[in-house]
Amino acid sequence: MESTPADSPQPKPARDPGLPPVEPPTAGFLLQLFLIPMVIVSIIVLVWFAFSWLAHQGVDPHDLARSLKSRNDASWQKAYNLSNMLRDSKNAELKRDRELARELIDVLEAELGVKLGEGDASQDSSARDYQTDARVRLREFLCRSLGEFELTDVAPTLVKALQQEQSPLDLPVRRRAAEALAVLAGSVDLAQDGEVVEGLIEASRDRSANPEEKLLRGELRSAAAFALGMVGSPAALDQLEIMLTDVYANARFNAATGLARQGDARCVDTLVAMLDPDNAEAVADEESEEGQRFKRAELLGNGIKSVRKYLQASPEADMTSLRAALQKLADANLSRDVTMAAKETVMLIQQRD
Description:
- The protein is mainly α.
- The chain has a domain of 91 residues.
- The protein contains 16 helices and no strands.
- Helix 3 packs parallel to helix 6 and helix 13 packs parallel to helix 15.
- The termini are far apart.
């Protein structure tokens, strides 16, 4: 009996010649794929750390300071490195090194001694260099470095940097000088230094009709207010009272913070405003919604810290309005950090009472 087609064995499908055979990866292939690149990356990282360590170990601050006398485009980076060295708690002895301070003073004095002509044609190369970004940064970081010293020797040069403005490019340098004087006032007594106090008061009054300079001059006044609060002389505190009505919010709030640090009751109304989470005026200078959120969080945190400083400086002060503002803030259902800080400060006031 002949088989039917249904009973005939079916032919196997032909193998697609275009597909390679599937084989498990070999140990050598895995080594090339993972281990070798990892070893290369590890070597690069180790070499980078080694060079960084050697560079750090080989830096002498006096050599670094002396190299600044060339005042070239790379000098600002060296001044920046010096400022970081002075800020490092491991280098506390540098803060009292008069020789190092004198070397930096000489460089900044040389920078401030450059005089600009009335027009580009009348300016020599030193005047043109003075206005480059690199040289502006150099003066900024020289101010920052000098502020880290625990020596009154640096104050006159910082006051000169605070007061000198040959062009709007000097505004960031003036602000850095004010900030440096604030840091300096934290380590030495400047309350009796008339030049420092007068220089900061003058900067705190700085105004301009040019709208493009509004922010820079506002930040200068803000930095001056903070420094006046650190100095804490009677004249400084009287000026801070005037600054409580400054049109620039940061200047107002720094004035209140300075008064609080000195235990001066004139800070209270502005501190209450700082603690108000619904105070739209407090963040009016910020254009973006994200910037406003960040500014408000920062402001609330600073307000709480200022209340604590006020309580510490003036334990017998009337805290009624501040306590109410803190309680409202604690009940506002904001971030955990703000809520906890507000509640803890309310408890500190209650413990005192």
